[in-house]
């Protein structure tokens, strides 16, 4: 009998083009290291990005815009993602592409406004009566079905909670057990249950289990202090778009969206300017009372030249709003026609009146050493072994073609190496793959030579 182990793939992370980017790679003085946090080169652009991060954190950048301009493959998207990494998970970061606004169902300006409000966070602080502690016991109790038959129904749930000061056993309603299941709570997790609403929140895994080999634990937290039953400041993070949707389609629930949903009583309404103004009024009222704090995030619009004159006019107005995120544009175009016009030629395809509001960061082509270092990082991230001459060949090829092209050669070259019974990628593997595939420049050259053979 043959027994083989089945390898789990549930925790395997997809390797995306910018998986290696972990931050801007700056020192304490805001100067860029030549190579850090997955970044190589682009020192000036990264240092400018660091200043932008400081402005966002100090809330002095709201309503302003930034443009990352440079040739294709010079790290524009990487810098935007690095800014998001530096800001942390609590600051909203909403990426989109210029072409997303063109839809037969929704107006272009509506798509822009939806993304604008998705990039604006609201941090709400409330003092609530809660039961908090480490879960010691979680036992659902069943009873005979009152309607008869063979099935059983859930009568209540017994849960034991432990803090530094003591242990308490609670008997919970079956509806709360549904919330516990949604949060995927298990014994050893630290949770809190709101006394008034029954809402359940998983805080993390108890640090008493920190020595165990637990891949599923997202964060270890200390055992809560004080009694199990107490008053606690609860912080909830939502976006303005979450509030828009909750009020447009009010539903019963246990969180802040349901509370804000009491603004309007109709069962279903569209997200109109009137509704958004009403939500803004309540948000401003909460901010004035000190209950809530506005967290301006980042809206990243890649390929901004794909927007048309109507969108640019709308952006001009939106950037002047009192509630507005920082907007980061990215483009690889030079002087070109503004979409939606017949004769307006402008830098980057953006109207001059909008360009006046924008800080522009330029990204420069990578040098031979930069490309070599980036290829090395990508190979390490993808778990590939490159020989020294193969690495040099890719760096030289990257200067002649593009960084994106040579990085794309890594995967097919690794497949070719494995086919030949090797784990490491050699120069011969890369040359063979390079002969099989064409880069953009080579393809354009062939098209020009054999233009007569193609259908025009």
Automatic annotation (TrEMBL):
Family matches, as Gene3D superfamilies = 1.10.8.60, P-loop containing nucleotide triphosphate hydrolases (3.40.50.300), RuvB-like helicase, domain II (2.40.50.360)
User: Per the record, what are the reactions this protein catalyses?
Assistant: ATP + H2O = ADP + phosphate + H(+)
InterPro entries in alphabetical order: AAA+_ATPase, P-loop_NTPase, RuvB-like, RuvB-like_C, RuvBL1/2_DNA/RNA_bd_dom, TIP49_P-loop
- Coarsely, its chief localization is nucleus
Q: Does the keyword Ion transport apply?
A: no
What broad class of enzyme is this? hydrolase
GO CC, any one term: Ino80 complex
Q: What EC number(s) has UniProt assigned to this enzyme?
A: 3.6.4.12
Q: Which UniProt keywords apply?
A: Activator, ATP-binding, Chromatin regulator, DNA damage, DNA repair, Helicase, Hydrolase, Nucleotide-binding, Nucleus, Transcription, Transcription regulation
Keyword Mitochondrion included in the entry's annotation: no
The biological process GO terms on file are: chromatin organization; DNA repair
Any idea where the AAA+ ATPase domain is?
62-365
One Pfam family from the UniProt entry? TIP49_C
Q: Which GO terms describe its molecular function?
A: ATP binding; DNA helicase activity; hydrolase activity
| Location in the cell | Nucleus
Q: What does this protein do?
A: DNA helicase participates in several chromatin remodeling complexes, including the SWR1 and the INO80 complexes.
Similarity-based family: Belongs to the RuvB family.
Protein name per its UniProtKB record:
RuvB-like helicase
Organism equals Rhizophagus clarus
